[in-house]
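Lay summary. Proteins are chains of building blocks that fold into shapes, and those shapes determine what they do. In this project we predict the shape from the chain. Here is one chain we studied, written as its sequence of building blocks.
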Amino acid sequence: MFKEFREFAVKGNVVDMAVGIIIGAAFGTIVTSLVKDIIMPPIGLLLGGVDFSNLFLVLKQGATPSPYGSLAAAQAAGAVTLNVGQFINTVISFLIVAFSVFLVIRAINKLKREEPAPAAAPTTKDCPHCLSTIPLKATKCAHCASSL
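And here is the predicted shape, written in a compact code that computers can read:
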């Protein structure tokens, strides 16, 4: 059983999948940073200084009554919150990842497309007298015996 598992684990597809998962996880952290540190601050600034990561609704007060200055403060007080801003960040991250994957797949598909093979040069022609098909280099028709 161990030998069979080892054969499965070192197959090319499993190794390729493992590499893809590792690179995908690393790519996910890059996208998270892109959304959190690059994209969301200007959007928040355009919307009047809103920090989406701290956009939340209090469903139930915690030990300390509201208002809470941040999501971390609300969670520290034990408040039950609906974390709308984090959801928005996650949706934007997903859209960026989906668009990035689309661009990669599109580029791969362009590379995979093969140019159509040029049409092969003709090897036959029609006899002008009897219209039979004859080899291109023929000097006499095999069907009607006329000289070409």
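What the prediction tells us: The longest strand covers residues 57-60.
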